[in-house]
Design goal:
Layout (H helix, E strand, L loop, with lengths): L2 H6 L13 H22 L15 H21 L2 E7 L4 E4 L3 H4 L11 H6 L3 H17 L3 E8 L5 E12 L5 E10 L1 H20 L5 H12 L6 E7 L5 E8 L2 H13 L5 H6 L1 H9 L3 E3 L4 H7 L3 H10 L1 E11 L2 E11 L8 H75 L7 H35 L7 E5 H15 L5 E4 L6 E4 L1 H17 L7 E8 L4 E7 L7 H4 L23 H11 L4 E5 L5 E8 L14
Length: 634
């Protein structure tokens, strides 16, 4: 302790001034009892009737009463874990209750006789706070309260709380300090442990970079929980890697890192240094050493270098716990206290370290799972890019010869048909067969052209090159009617019913792309319905959103709810025994969805298995246009 602080503590006290009379002493004693009684009520540990000074009828009865009262007070204080002390300021004498020795961890029965000796029992880090609290109480003539650690036998420290009151004379000068102390070590450690776990949890979840988090965790643990903190992670190949090392003194941290650089852990000496860590990682069994005498170090050391390393750490107590999650050991976290701090780990500390290790293991596991997921996503992205690149190249390469084949096929088809209207009104059997073959060829070439164009559209969408050619004055009823008529001509046996909007809906749209969308929806309705089943096509208006709405309804096989969220994904097709014969690449709805989205609208469906499907899409109309018509909820 600062000697000057001791000497100046009562610089304003004049011990030469006369003491007070006995009446004043009795009044002060009554005040002391009242103070102790209030403190007992605060603890709620004893249920004593208030004790007071009363005038006794006879001296023997008074002595018996006093003895019994003192015994009750002593029992209540000990039951509550409260010790009392008194400092006679004038004589500089300290007296304390019998249980104070246990609170201060004194095993030899020695008790402090002076205030300075009393202060020497307080932890150096808290001594000045105690002195300042007492000094302030003397100055303000008020009670004081302070939390502090006491140094117990062996150098360990224990948390206590002290409360005191100043007793002054008639002249206002302090005569005595009356105080009580009770043990709050368990409460303090529990509170600090919970706070430490909360802070550690925040650190471990601050990012998905587990190595950075573990380095921050080591910094958090020192010196709150340890003088040394080291974290080791077991790589997928089984090698142990140190990712964090921390000491309360940065110079010691630098020494550990430099020592490690001279003896890497992948060398023989390096592995010998990690013998205990490797054992914990391999067995999954934690290590708890409340005391580590030098003889233990000699027994553990593999060679002189290892012994030197351990002695330099200066270990007093150690905990090493495996980092486990989902039955997998990810590494080990090690906590060491040194002789400088004088702290020995307890079973409560061991339990705290195990809980922390569980959180660390979970955090590492989450980080690794996230990293694996990111790697999988990146691989999928690369595959998608390669696939898009292939589609783009293949589509362009296929489209050129296909266009040539289609052109020559159409020329031959026209030449053969021209014979029918020329010199040979009736074609022979061979020529008629050639006409049919060419017609089928032109039809198949048209289908292939559609597929190739879809692949080109996919490539354009993925590369951001899918652009609309918007034209004003497009009347939606006319566009839809034209496509319905074309589909009806292609399939005369299929009833395709058209319900136009009562008012013309006009906007700025890409007419060719809209035709592609409507063609796709009607074609799907036909493909997934039994022959002869009707298809309904309609145009409506959504008043709330001022949008045109087009729908296509069929009475086909329907789509279950589990597939509806993915129906607009590229290459996605609903596979059921009822549609195995339906061809397609699963691109049409994806392209249609993207087309409508680029128009500022959206696409959705209503469907249930066995009840058919209705596909909708909306197109925004100009703000000034409120045409009305067949109301459709968007």
């Amino acid at each position: 302790m600062d000697v000057s602080a001791k000497k100046n503590l009562f610089a304003d006290v004049d011990p030469t001034k006369p003491a007070t009379n006995p009446a004043t002493e009795i009044a002060a004693l009554k005040e002391r009892v009242a103070e102790l009684e209030a403190l007992l009520r605060e603890k709620n540990e004893a249920n004593l009737s208030p004790f007071r000074f009363e005038k006794a009828s006879s001296k023997p009865n008074q002595e018996v009463w006093q003895r019994e009262s003192d015994e009750q007070v002593r029992f209540a204080l000990e039951a509550a874990g409260i010790g009392t002390w008194e400092w006679n300021v004038i004589k500089n004498e300290v007296k304390w209750s019998a249980n104070m020795a246990g609170i201060f961890g004194l095993t030899n029965g020695a008790t402090p006789q002076t205030y300075d000796e009393y202060l020497d029992l307080i932890h150096p880090g808290d001594r000045q706070d105690f002195v300042q609290a007492v000094r302030q109480a003397i100055k303000d003539k008020e009670n004081f309260e302070v939390q502090f650690r006491v140094i117990r036998a062996g150098g360990a420290y224990h948390w206590n709380i002290g409360k005191g009151k100043i007793i002054t004379g008639d002249n206002g000068q302090p005569l005595r300090l009356l105080g009580v102390i009770y043990d709050i070590n368990d409460f303090k450690h529990t509170t600090e442990a919970l706070r430490f776990l909360v802070d550690a949890s925040h650190t471990l979840t601050s990012s998905l970079d587990y190595e950075t988090n573990l380095q921050q965790l080591a910094a958090l643990a020192v010196p709150r929980f340890a003088d040394w903190c080291m974290v080791f992670v077991q790589e997928t190949d089984g090698e142990i890697k140190q990712v964090a090392v921390r000491h309360s003194d940065p110079a010691r941290t630098a020494w550990a890192l430099e020592f490690q650089s001279h003896y890497p852990y992948n060398t023989r000496i390096g592995r010998s240094l990690l013998k205990e860590i490797i054992q914990v990682a391999q067995t999954g069994q934690p290590q708890y050493l409340p005391e580590m005498p030098d003889g233990l170090l000699k027994g553990v050391a593999i060679d002189p270098v290892h012994l030197e390393w351990m002695r330099e750490l200066g270990p007093r107590s150690k905990i090493a716990v495996p980092l486990v999650a989902r039955n997998r050991i990810f590494g080990v976290i090690s906590f060491i206290t040194s002789h400088e701090s004088g702290r020995n780990y307890t079973l409560a500390d061991f339990e705290l370290a195990q809980e922390l290790a569980r959180q660390v293991g979970q955090a590492i596991d989450n980080s690794w799972l996230y990293r694996q997921a990111q790697e999988s996503i990146e691989i999928q992205r690369q595959l998608d890019r390669l696939k898009d690149q292939f589609l783009s190249i293949a589509s362009h390469e296929l489209l050129t010869p296909l266009t040539t084949i289609k052109g020559y096929s159409q020329i031959l088809q026209r030449d053969l048909l021209r014979l029918r209207t020329g010199n040979q009104p009736v074609l022979d059997q061979s020529t008629s067969r050639s006409v049919r073959i060419l017609s089928n060829l032109v039809g198949q070439v048209g289908r292939m052209e559609i597929l190739i164009n879809e692949m080109l559209d996919i490539s354009r969408i993925q590369s951001g090159q899918f652009h609309l050619k918007l034209t004003g004055g497009i009347i939606l009823n006319e566009v839809v009617r034209r496509i319905v008529e074309q589909q009806q001509d292609a399939d005369p046996d299929r009833p395709i019913l058209f319900q136009p909007n009562t008012f013309e809906l006009e906007g700025m749209w890409d007419e060719n792309r809209l035709e592609q969308v409507i063609n796709n929806l009607i074609s799907n309705a036909i493909k997934y319905s039994e022959p002869g089943k009707p298809v309904e096509v309609g145009v409506g208006y959504a008043t709330i959103t001022n949008e045109a709405v087009v729908w296509v309804r069929d009475e086909g096989i329907g789509i279950s709810a589990e597939h509806q969220n993915q129906i607009f994904d590229r290459f996605y097709r609903v596979r059921t025994p009822m549609n195995v014969s339906v061809d397609g690449l699963g691109l049409g709805l994806y392209i249609s969805f993207e087309t409508i989205k680029q128009h500022g609208g959206h696409m959705w469906l209503e469907s249930a298995p066995g009840e058919g499907s209705t596909f909708y899409f909306s197109l925004p109309l100009p703000d000034e246009a409120r045409p009305g018509g067949t109301e459709v909820a968007p």
